[in-house]
Design brief:
The protein is an alpha+beta fold. The chain is 52% helix and 16% strand. It has 15 helices and 11 strands. The strands form 3 sheets. The chain has a 4-stranded antiparallel sheet, sandwiched between helices. The longest helix has 27 residues. The two termini are 38 Å apart.
């Protein structure tokens, strides 16, 4: 749930920030530095973006509320202090970590909005440009997660601390919402070598046409499966080093200007790349993407297996846990018979939430698309074991939940103390 809210907030923030940037470029508004933290700057437009995001969910918010602006500024300063400390401590974020998080977030967006094309329409820019705009935010998020884990990841609370926390805050603890105990069996869709071979041959045929003199932009508009750039002849614009898939970037920088690559494989398929212009640390490219597709995958076999599992369990055989342990491709839940624990509807992915909300206890869903990574398609069936109705927090029944809340409270308290120390240790300044 928290991750979903964070994702939606970043979508709004990025969209708003992009709009504000466009205004700046048109000379319609004046941006300025409102604070400095180490080598990081905070712009007025960053505060504006967050205020407009808040207003989008709560119309009563006033973007001119100075007290609220000051609170937001202090919150952003705290974030920048943590990032600055992480960089000072040489906390490393690898390119593959950023790519993994980007793919996960992209998959979440696709699940919410239906397609990559829809996402591009919302942002009014191609996916490659969205990733470019979004990459620093992903990097900073990972930096923050890593240093917070280093500092507070091993913090725990004793049973005594849990009881003391409950006695102190029980009157302010929220009701426990309806919780759904569910399990699932997940099967990955595997794309065989034939599918890759077909895509590679198509990519080579396109490249042969380019070598014979056909126009790149025309071929891109007809053949590229990157619909965010196909209408512009495959043009991706300028990118700084480190902002593209490593395989793509390596090939693009190795090319001479106007030279065309052989098919380059990334998780999205094969790319024919042409370098338009390049400098030492940035490059301007265009490409034609040929996706692997699923025509030669085991998609139908996966769906057939999941339907068979569903029928066998519904016929009276108590096999779900056994089948999950034997066949599920979800390594996190397989050892527990596919158990995903007790979750509120809000904590479930959107497509699962809709289905489970309309199921009865002991029902098994039809096969559903699974996963947040569009490069790793999968399906799963969901078993709704039991509903635990909404109730007031009880120390005995909800000990694990209270323990988690108490732990978060303790970590939050220590985090505030640490930020206070960082404000004494690191340079920061609010500009008047």
């Amino acid at each position: 749930m928290i991750k979903m809210k964070y994702t939606l907030m970043l979508i709004m923030l990025l969209s708003i920030s992009y709009g504000l940037k466009a205004q700046l470029e048109e000379g319609q508004t004046v941006d300025k530095i409102v604070a400095v933290v180490g080598k990081e700057i905070i712009l007025k437009s960053e505060i504006d973006a967050r205020l407009y995001q808040m207003k989008s969910t709560n119309p009563s918010v006033s973007v001119d509320d100075q007290e609220l602006r000051d609170k937001l500024l202090n919150s952003i300063i705290d974030e920048k202090l943590i990032i600055t400390k992480a960089l000072e401590d040489s906390v490393e974020v690898k390119p593959e970590e950023i790519d993994q998080q980007w793919n996960s977030m992209l998959g979440t967006w696709i699940a919410q909005f239906g397609s990559q094309e829809r996402i591009e329409k919302i942002f009014k820019m191609p996916l490659s440009r969205i990733k470019f705009q979004y990459k620093d935010q992903i990097r900073n998020q990972i930096l923050t997660q890593k240093i917070n884990f280093q500092k507070f990841g091993q913090i725990n609370v004793s049973p005594r601390e849990v009881r003391e926390f409950y006695e102190e805050f029980k009157d302010s603890l929220q009701m426990v919402p309806d919780e759904y105990e569910i399990a699932h069996i997940k099967l990955d869709v595997k794309i065989d070598n034939t599918a890759k071979e077909v895509a590679y041959k198509k990519a080579m045929a396109i490249r042969d046409s380019l070598i014979k003199g056909e126009d790149f932009a025309e071929l891109a508009s007809r053949n590229s499966e990157d619909f965010g750039t196909s209408n512009s002849g495959g043009d991706q614009g300028w990118f700084e080093k480190g902002r593209l898939f490593p395989e793509f970037e390596k090939a693009a920088f190795a090319l001479q200007v106007d030279e065309t690559s052989l098919p380059v494989e990334t998780p999205f398929g094969y790319h024919i790349i042409q370098t338009i212009a390049k400098e030492e640390n940035k490059i301007n490219t265009r490409h034609i993407l040929v996706k692997f597709g699923e025509k030669n995958s085991n998609r139908e076999e996966v769906l057939e297996k999941l339907n068979d599992f569903k029928k066998r369990c519904e016929s009276g055989e108590s096999l779900f846990e056994e089948l999950a342990k034997k066949y599920s491709d979800d390594n996190k839940t397989r050892g527990f018979g596919g158990s995903m624990g007790k979750l509120s509807l809000g904590e479930l992915p959107v497509n699962v939430r809709t289905v489970v909300g309309n199921m009865k206890e002991s029902e098994i869903s039809e096969p559903l698309p699974y996963g947040n990574d569009p490069t790793k398609p999968a399906f799963h069936i969901v078993y709704f074991k039991k509903l635990y109705p909404q109730h007031e927090v009880d120390l005995e029944k909800d000990f694990n939940r209270i323990e988690s809340i108490a732990k978060n409270y303790k970590q939050s308290t220590l985090l505030k103390e640490w930020i206070a120390e960082l404000k004494e240790e690191l340079y920061w300044e609010i500009k008047k």
